[in-house]
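Let's practice the habit of predicting before peeking. Look at the sequence and jot down your guess about where helices and strands might fall. Then scroll down.
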Amino acid sequence: QSVLSSLLQWNDDDDDGDKNYDLAIKLLLIYSCNSFEGGRIYHKLSRVNHSCNPNAVVVEGDSPDKSELRAACDIAVGDEITISYLGKYLFAGYPIRQRLLRANKHFACRCARCTYSDSVGEENDAAAKTGRVGSNKGDLASRIPCPICHPRTGRYLDEDVMFDEDANDDNGLRVCYAIPANGMTAEERPLYCQSCKGTTTAVVPEGGGSMNKKKEGMAIKYMCTAEDKIFDRLESSTGNEEKQTATGNDAETERDIDQQFLQMATSICGAQHWTTHFMSLSLIEESLASFNSTLMTMGQDPDKDAEIMDELFVEIAEAADGIERAYAFASLLELNLDPAHWLFDYTVGLARTLVGLGDEKSQKYGSTWIEKVEKYARYFENDGMNKVVVALRDAWKRGKTEEETGGKDIESGEEDQTDCKRRKTG
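Done guessing? Here is the structure:
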């Protein structure tokens, strides 16, 4: 009401028009900085500050005026309670987080995750100047294979470094990752490798430096270019509209474009960079949306059905691998939030598809995916979604005796629901 009344007071012909105009702009900026999705303003919730490693989340109730703040981890007495203003981009790298916060909330974040070091002053300045990564480990979401340990062919990584599929196997190549310092430009983002202890910088040394140093420095610039292009693709309103409404050949074209962007992310930034996981999940989202329609077309030709199912199983396996890798990536960020805050919808979508296949083996596999998000759902999802989670978890048990289910109570979800309600009201 105070915002509206102040705006109504402004009049171009008024002697105080400029003053009222400045006040109106100030009020609108305050509103923009503190409103939630949908333009909602809360007396208390809107006062909670942002952090790129928040310890709480805002959960919507049955109606917007019943939204509440819930702890996402243990919070010590005296610690500030913080939330994220970034949505899924909380799991992205420093430049994208800062770009969004500056554009939408009009401030530069200086939380612990966004600063070079947990301390300030001379140590912080020294870290920035020498390229060292401070005690908060730098931009963990943007780590790439170390250009010193793994020299590139042009701008691209070798295939065994690119995918990092055998990194944990005894006989596989161990990929060494370098972590960028927090910065907005390539020159402000030197890489530090924890394996070789080397520092790569995009700044050309006086006298030109060696050719190897120049090539290593170009890896940072390639990464920055890839980040910008992929973020623009993910955020393109035109691109998103086209993907949502495209059918037939158009949908295939959009998917091919996304595949090219995923290839760019993987070949330039590697398997542990945020761009790779965001593009992978974008494609997985499209796949999950198409699985049910694919199943609906079956039932006419047994031979064709068998062929469709073979292709579908491959796509489901690829989706499962992509989501599993995203969970591993989210865990490496060492955030207070459970990865399910980002990956809940993808996980439930995959479980729905597996349960929809109808056979017990697929339904049991779907149940293992639900177990990843079950605890998260109890605290942060509404009762309706919790019922969906329980139904998907127990789908394979329907029609079976207690002995056949290993003595597990098929209706165990009821107790979970009651416990969840007690927490909400307690």
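How did you do? The chain is about 55% helix and 5% strand.
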